[in-house]
Amino acid sequence: MRILFVGTGDIGIPTLEWLRKSRHTLIGVVTQPDKPVGRHQELQLSGIKQIAQREGVPIFQPVKIREAEVQKSLRELDPEVLVVIAYGQILPRSVLDIPSVACLNLHASLLPLHRGAAPIQAAIEAGDAESGIAVMYMAEGLDTGDVLLQQTLRLGRRETGGSLHDRLAQAAPPALEEALELLEHGVAPRTPQENARATYAGKLSREDGEISWSSPIAVDRRVRAMNPWPGAYTWLPVGGGRRKLKVFSVIQSRNLSEGAVSGTVLQVERRGILVAAGERSVWLTEVQLEGKRRMRVAEFLRGTSVNVGIFFGGSGLP
Predict the structure, then answer these.
(1) For the chain, what is the domain count?
(2) Hey, which residues does 296 pair with through a beta bridge?
(3) pLDDT score recorded for residue 317
(4) Mean pLDDT value of segment 151-169
């Protein structure tokens, strides 16, 4: 079939690579405009665009895909299927109607759970046992379309946002391959979602990584979910101010907090920094102070003083 790929995020790279090698015809790639990054604000090409350029596939980078001229160009390609994954813009009905067979979205959750922009982090923070790739028929609502099929993955005990992202990226191509075969044979199912079970995972900002010391479980899930982006963090009081302290690894502790305010440092040892978290506590074992590199706590403590009784978060005071 004639496939038009629509995507921007790196999670779509294995799918685009598979389409390029498959028996289907990749007729074009729609991706977001190049964005300036770094101190010098140099334009950086996404991995998606780099593949399309390398293979000589027509590339479209509209600021807004709803523009009439853009849609005219896409119609002229005469696609049978639009394959959408992590694109970054909402597709209007006029775009959804362009393909002659179907407009499919590959979403990184088991729908109707975790609709929206950050399903990977949401699954880890929720303590889900499973995640997966949902191939759904796109509708105008936010991830509300009928499901064609879903591929399930078990979450690892120490799963991070980064590790789950990479595993789901690899799970997407076989899920799409099966979906396209079902479409070709005219036997692709359409299963309406159970809207009453739906949850939503909005777009993340850097501020969403701040740690709330409500319980060791909550801290552990936040740290793993936000690794590598946007990154879990707290605030280390320094002098009369504070500095951001990123946290990359923690160990849940059975130690009671002994009535200490959540976020209070209870012990400081080479193996970690013990912090009150609700009724119990959690060890911080790998951190990064702003302006410094990531390191184990034993090394971090050689250059930074952390005293029992200080408070992580806010103004540095409980």
Answers:
(1) 2
(2) 286
(3) 47
(4) 97
